[in-house]
């Protein structure tokens, strides 16, 4: 006689003592804008690696890996196949508790503005232990003395530097782009597709649509002008034939 085994879900740990927000200002204007660019773009113009996959991208939200450990707060993180809970004000849903989401984020991005973050030291090792697939360090003013953009991929238990900027496991790439975002020209870190095409912001999408509309209107006006010129040439030819005593309708017949 076969025995039916039942497994009860383990209750969520008690997190009543955990501080999920400390209300401490932590960023400068440049970092704040860069964070917003990286998060807003995906929600406005990306539908996941298979065009229907859920995802969560956030800035300055704590990631908790264990009850007894303080959170790590990436400047930006991206996690696939998860979403914000419906009751997101409930304490267990206010931060990224790995045991609630069932997995760590796939990508974390740190934006360097000083040398205090230890992005290539203790912070890198923290994300290794967290098992984050890709660790990105964007150093726009080269505080660390190395390249502006460094990307690491988890291989086994250690991060190895990547020479490519395509993040295969998430279906996104990263690129440096000089341009204007929110009236500020600078070199920005941007998401892109495999061919290096930027994932556009909502504003860029609207501008592209407006440009395409203007181009279509211009093409229609040009077509109408050509048709009008053709109509005028036909009228002139008809007038000349009649002046010569030739009936244009008989020629058409």
List the helices and strands and how they pair.
Elements: H1 29-45, E1 55-59, E2 63-64, E3 76-80, E4 96-97, H2 98-101, E5 107-111, H3 122-130, E6 134-138, E7 149-155, E8 158-161, E9 166-167, E10 172-181, E11 184-192, H4 202-243, H5 248-252
Parallel strand pairs: 2-4, 5-6
Antiparallel strand pairs: 1-3, 3-5, 6-7, 7-8, 9-10, 10-11
Quick synopsis:
This protein is α+β, with helices and mostly antiparallel strands.
State the main characteristics.
single chain; 253 residues; alpha+beta; tt1808, chain A; 2 domains; 3-stranded antiparallel β-sheet; 11 strands; disordered N terminus
Task: Write up this protein.
With about 250 residues, the chain is of the alpha+beta class. It has 2 domains: about 30-200, tt1808, chain A, CATH 3.90.1570; about 210-250. It is about 30% helix and about 20% strand. The chain has 5 helices and 11 strands. It has helices at about 30-45, 100, 120-130, 200-245, 250; strands spanning about 55-60, 65, 75-80, 95, 105-110, 135-140, 150-155, 160, 165, 170-180, 185-190. The strands form 3 sheets. It has a 6-stranded mixed β-sheet, sandwiched between helices. A 3-stranded antiparallel β-sheet has the order 9-10-11. A hairpin with a 2-residue loop joins strand 10 and strand 11 (about 185-190). The radius of gyration is 29 Å and the shape is elongated. It starts with about 30 loop residues before the first helix and ends with a helix. Mean pLDDT is about 85; it is low at about 1-5.
């Amino acid at each position: 006689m076969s025995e039916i085994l039942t497994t009860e879900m383990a209750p969520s740990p008690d997190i009543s003592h955990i501080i999920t927000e400390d209300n401490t200002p932590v960023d400068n204007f440049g970092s704040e804008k860069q964070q917003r660019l990286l998060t807003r773009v995906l929600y406005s113009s990306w539908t996941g690696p298979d065009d229907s996959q859920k995802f969560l991208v956030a800035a300055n939200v704590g990631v908790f890996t264990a009850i007894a450990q303080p959170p790590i707060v990436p400047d930006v993180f991206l996690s696939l196949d998860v979403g914000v809970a419906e009751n997101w004000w409930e304490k267990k849903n206010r931060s990224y508790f790995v045991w609630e989401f069932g997995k760590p984020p796939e990508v974390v991005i740190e934006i360097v503005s000083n040398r205090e973050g230890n992005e290539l030291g203790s912070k890198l090792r923290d994300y290794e232990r967290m098992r984050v697939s890709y660790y990105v360090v964007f150093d726009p003013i080269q505080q660390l003395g190395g390249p502006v953009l460094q990307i690491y991929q988890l291989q086994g238990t250690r991060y190895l530097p990547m020479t490519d900027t395509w993040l295969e496991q998430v279906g996104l790439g990263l690129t440096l782009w000089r341009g204007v975002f929110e009236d500020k020209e600078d070199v920005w870190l941007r998401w892109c597709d495999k061919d290096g095409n930027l994932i556009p912001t909502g504003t860029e999408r609207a501008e592209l649509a407006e440009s395409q509309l203007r181009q279509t209107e211009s093409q229609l006006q040009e077509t109408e002008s050509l048709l009008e010129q053709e109509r005028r040439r036909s009228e002139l030819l008809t007038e000349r034939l009649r002046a010569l005593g030739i009936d244009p309708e008989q020629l058409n017949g």
